[in-house]
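Supplementary material to the annual report.
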Amino acid sequence: MKDKKSLIVDMDGVLADIYKQLIKLEFEESGTRITVEETMGKTENDAFPNCQKLVKERGFFRNAPVMPGAIEVLKKLNEHYQLFVVSSAMEYPNSLEEKYYWMQEYFPFISWKQLVLCGTKTCVKGDIMIDDHFKNLDYFEGKTILFTQPHNSAKDENSHQRVHGWNDILKLLGEV
Amino acid sequence: MKDKKSLIVDMDGVLADIYKQLIKLEFEESGTRITVEETMGKTENDAFPNCQKLVKERGFFRNAPVMPGAIEVLKKLNEHYQLFVVSSAMEYPNSLEEKYYWMQEYFPFISWKQLVLCGTKTCVKGDIMIDDHFKNLDYFEGKTILFTQPHNSAKDENSHQRVHGWNDILKLLGEV
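Predicted assembly:
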């Protein structure tokens, strides 16, 4: 039997819709209603005045909404790939347990054995990586897939294959 | 400038003295005083009747004693290697924050960017790995160093270089 290819999937901005969560919480915090269009080309920090305060609060990651299509597509990919969900979580120690239970709630078919919470991803290996940050993809040795998010939407970069959502990923990786 | 070699260091049974912690807590729990000699060749589960209960309790990892010599040697190695502390923590979600703060207390010179908490270590890459478990070393592509612990002491295995403590590691890796 041929070994399954290993697939490294990011959490924030790929499985979890962080901009949607920030739009909701920024409005609750300051009354400022920010649209997705206004965040285009901006980092979360630049787009949301209270970003640093909000991401440090208990519940920020635990209550983040799931990216549309992520559950269905990941469930399918999990059957065909040796899948790992790898998240840069260490900057916010609050988030560690929250991310564990968030995965359990929405992706119960992903075992704890497939979870990695880290500071940087430079010591992670695999055949394919899906991520929304160049800082992670640029160091990866395998095939790299850039998941479009507002902060990376303006960058015209050809070194990674760009996808615009989980349906794109299904088309790209679903036929194993 | 030559790139630094990357060094992957395990936490439980390498930086943290888990058997010492279990001996103390097993005595407090059941009144049974177990000696290190009695644990030789046995897994933690076989050596300590209340092991599974104890490791799940809050504080088990946060209050674990540091392995002798670990702080001094890791501080030195951290200057010469691209060092990552990689711990299989995901089986016990309680342990995630505890391990983060334990590292901060005893190894403040290790940044959060160098920490990885995972389920399995098969997606971790590096030049050198120090670990007390064959299940981690056997999958690693670089140089492997087996840290002697009671559970692996009886195994006569030549595929990994065995060390008997942090002084051995300093001798082996200190001359960079």
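The interface with chain B takes residues 6, 8, 82, 84, 86, 90-91, 93-94, 96-97, 100-101, 111-120, 122-126 of chain A (CB under 8 Å).
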